[in-house]
Amino acid sequence: MAAALALAEEVAGSQPRAALSTLELRDFRNYRQLSLAVDDGIVVLTGANGAGKTNLLEAISLLSPGRGLRRAVLAELDRDDAGPFVLRARLSTIDGPLDIATGRDPSHDRRFVRLFDRNLRGQSELGMFFGVSWLVPSMDRILGDAASGRRRLLDRLALAVQPDHATRVAAYERAMRERSAVLRDGAGDPAWLKVLETRMAEPAVAIAAARIEVIGALNARLRNPVLDLPAVELAPSGEVEGWLLEMSALDTEQRLCEALARSRGRDALAGGAQHGVHRSDLDVCEAVRCEPAARLSTGRQKAVLLAMVMAEAELRRERSGMTPILLLDEVAAHLDSARRDALCDALLALDAQVWLTGTDKSLFGALSGRAQFFHVDEGRLSNHE
What share of the chain is helix, strand, coil (3-state, %, to 5)? Predict the structure, then answer.
């Protein structure tokens, strides 16, 4: 670890990183108004439970594709009896500074996203410019719960190898909704259904390919994780991914189109689609014991997820030349002092902007003098150091 820290100090300032420099919030969760300026290193937020630490991380997570780390309904993000919420941020990236604004548009009850003064088509485009990744307590059981959570995690990881992955997922889901609507109406033109199924199959193959690629790239890092985190093995689980491992992309696309055509009757009755990448899963096991992660203790599962997040950050840096922003909520709470110190050292060596939260500043003693500390109290921030 000492060697890693020495290397981090040597390259500090030369390795491009995605970093938030200013953040402004209005009527977001329990924040009436906030204006915050930070450095591009580690930021530590401390305070009592319910003070607003996770709310602040959630705001930052909205700068990435998707619905944020809580996957909240838009109206839930508005401060009580106020709103609509607005978030403005300036970020430094490998391509220069970016000014981003997002919030709820009350006229359509949708989220707008603006880059400088240009409206983006949706939040999925944000993945093209920088990365944001997170580990929060609500993810503690993701490895043993429904496949949908692991699938979302996998698609977030895939942004490390395909920055436009979220755009393809959005296109696939849009085509699937249109097909479902046609089938539900009961008067579907076979020619139009074929068009919609092709619109599903084309991005589906690209989605499956990105998932397979990121799993392979992460496995190379997860065999020798940082700290004493578990060695992890990932594997794709889904029919489209399985086909793609056996045949060409074109043949896989054709096979999915044929499967969708055969299932029109069932899909009309059940809704959705019986076939496609929306039914895939991510298999995760602890490599040394060959133990499925779902069978591990909650603490061990959290360690597995932390290993995956750290590996993702390294992969993003290698592929894009820029480390992502990391949001780590209460990750130190269940670690002993030696492991907390080792984690702090590993985060410094990663040379990324990392946002950490905890109830007690003493949990992050190893970062004293090497991070920015803020105390959070009922939606207000004060500087600790």
Answer: 45, 25, 30
DSSP H helices in 271-330: 298-320
Specify whether 283 is located in the same domain as 171: yes
CB 1 within 8 A of CB 349: yes
Count of domains in the chain? 2
Comparing CA positions, the residue from 367, 363, 224, 213 lying closest to residue 307 is: 224
Look up the domain containing 334 and give its range.
1-131+326-385
Distance from C-alpha of 362 to C-alpha of 375, rounded to nearest angstrom: 12
Domain identity same for 29 and 91? yes
CATH code, 88: 3.40.50.300
Whether the bond into 324 is cis, omega within 30 of 0: no
Sheet holding 232-237, edge to edge: 232-237, 281-286, 291-292
- Do 66 and 194 sit in the same domain of this protein? no
Closest CA to 278 of 262, 264, 260, 254: 260
- Using only C-alpha atoms, the chain has a radius of gyration, in whole angstroms, of 22
d(CA 205, CA 211): 10
**Same-domain check for residues 59 and 125:** yes
* Last residue in a domain, options 321, 351, 370: 321
Question: Nearest Cα to 354, choosing from 362, 320, 345?
Answer: 345
Of 266, 297, 321, the last residue of a domain is: 321
Claim to verify: residue 316 and residue 230 sit in the same structural domain: yes
Same domain membership, residue 300 and residue 362: no
Both 307 and 332 in one domain: the answer is: no
Output the tens digit of pLDDT for each of the chain's 385 residues: 333 333 333 333 445 789 999 999 999 999 999 999 999 999 999 999 999 999 999 999 999 999 999 999 999 999 999 989 999 999 999 889 999 999 999 888 899 999 998 999 888 888 889 999 999 999 988 999 999 999 999 999 999 999 999 999 999 999 999 999 999 988 678 999 999 999 999 999 999 999 999 999 999 999 988 778 899 999 999 999 999 999 999 999 999 999 999 999 999 999 999 999 999 999 999 998 889 999 999 888 999 999 999 999 999 999 988 999 999 999 988 788 888 899 999 999 988 999 999 999 999 999 999 999 999 999 999 986 5
Instruction: Kindly state whether residues 225 and 367 are assigned to the same domain.
Output: no
